[in-house]
TrEMBL record:
It comes from the Bacteria. This is Phosphohydrolase. One of its GO terms (molecular function) is hydrolase activity. PANTHER family: HD_PDEASE DOMAIN-CONTAINING PROTEIN, SUPERFAMILY HYDROLASE, PUTATIVE (AFU_ORTHOLOGUE AFUA_1G03035)-RELATED. Keywords: Hydrolase. The keyword Nucleotide-binding does not apply. The lineage of its organism: Bacteria, Pseudomonadati, Bacteroidota, Flavobacteriia, Flavobacteriales. It holds the Pfam family HD. It comes from Epilithonimonas lactis. InterPro entries: HD/PDEase_dom, HD_domain. SUPFAM superfamilies: HD-domain/PDEase-like. Residues 23-126 form the HD domain. The keyword Cytoplasm does not apply.
């Protein structure tokens, strides 16, 4: 528990003042979801907890796309805490391979611990919280909420996704509505069903209000 508490302290310090869709509370939800999935699916609990807590310690989207900062911070911190090298390597592997934008580059045979943390992170991107986070980030980026003439860009490459400044509503089709079918574990898939349907209901209501239809 001492290691986990020190990790929590580090994350809170590093993410202080961060955009609220990627702040400590996002990390806390992913951590709790990861533990819930772990209880049903198994896996190395320590690796899962550390990866869940540290997965957004330096999100590249807030560091000019630099994907190396997180690895450096995590390696240095866990080494200082005298965590064994095998555990450090497993945590780093998860952090480097779990993101949506890197899904086509990740190895095909993923360890259970990565699948669990990835599922937890993706679950936090859908449902009511997912909707709130999406509009919050769209506002942070000053993106349009919706434009009837701007169509979603499907099947984007990693570089296209990173540079995308499309509308917030389009992001549902470019990412959020895809996540249900990209989940790994039975437990996560069960949780996702309701959250996915909630997003569909939200979009239906959104279009009705936008078009002033009854």
């Amino acid at each position: 528990m001492e290691l986990i508490n020190k990790t929590i302290d580090l994350v809170k310090e590093k993410l202080e003042g961060t955009e609220s869709g990627h702040d400590w509370f996002h990390i806390e939800r992913v951590w709790k979801l990861s533990l819930h999935i772990h209880e049903k699916e198994g896996g190395d609990k320590l690796v899962i907890e550390l990866a869940a807590l540290l997965h957004d310690i330096a999100d590249p989207k807030f560091h000019n796309g630099d994907e190396t900062i997180a690895t450096k911070i995590v390696t240095e911190f866990l080494t200082e805490q005298k965590v064994d090298q095998e555990t450090i390597d497993k945590v780093i592997f998860i952090i480097e391979n779990m993101s949506f934008k890197n899904r086509n580059d990740a190895p095909k045979d993923l360890p259970l611990e990565l699948k669990i943390v990835q599922d937890a992170d993706r679950l936090d991107a859908i449902g009511a919280i997912g909707i709130a986070r999406t509009f919050n980030f769209g506002g942070y980026k000053n993106n349009l909420m919706y434009h009837p003439e701007i169509q979603p860009k499907l099947a984007q490459s990693k570089e296209e996704y990173k540079k995308s400044n499309g509308t917030t509503i389009n992001h549902f089709y470019e990412k959020l509505l895809l996540l249900k079918d990209l989940l790994n574990t039975k437990t996560a898939k069960e949780i996702a069903e309701h959250r996915h349907q909630f997003m569909l209901q939200f979009l239906d209501e959104f279009y009705k209000e936008w078009n002033v239809t009854f």
